[in-house]
Amino acid sequence: MHPPSWFRIGGIPLDLPDGWEQKVAAFTHDFSKRIDELDQMLTDGPIFRVRTEGVGTVSLDDALDWGGFSGPNLRACGLIGIYVAACPIAATIILILMW
């Protein structure tokens, strides 16, 4: 099965291949036992952090200038800080609604 077929209008043209259940069962058998190890490796692992921290950062000025940014992306750029400085009550309402 070719992955782009999964995104076709109407779905995939064929059923799942024979033996798929055994492959999924083998993958998931130890997964719950190893989830903490995987989480630690991804969140605290030095290789992961070096490759992901600071990559693709966008300043608030660039985000507003480029357009197309909304919601979490604008908040990640620091937009909520502007709300807090300009109108603390509005910022509190926004934070409550986001919660």
Name some characteristics of this structure:
99 residues; 7 helices; mainly alpha
Description:
The protein is mainly alpha-helical and 99 residues long. It folds into 2 domains: 18-55, no CATH class; 60-98, no CATH class. Helix content is 64%, strand content 0%. Helix 6 (79-86) crosses helix 7. The model has no long low-confidence stretch (mean pLDDT 77).
Reconstruct the topology from this structure.
Blueprint: H1 20-29, H2 31-44, H3 46-52, H4 60-66, H5 71-76, H6 79-86, H7 88-98
Helix pairs in contact: 6-7
Structure at a glance:
The protein is an all-alpha fold and 99 residues long. The protein has helices spanning 20-29, 31-44, 46-52, 60-66, 71-76, 79-86, 88-98. Helix 6 (79-86) crosses helix 7.
**Overall tally of domains:** 2
* Low-pLDDT stretches: none
Q: What share of residues are in beta strands?
A: under 5%
Number of strands: 0
Average pLDDT works out at: 77
For the termini, the CA-CA separation is: 41 Å
Number of continuous helical runs: 7
Largest sheet: none
List the secondary-structure elements in sequence, H or E: HHHHHHH
Taking all Cα atoms into account, the compactness measure Rg is: 22 Å
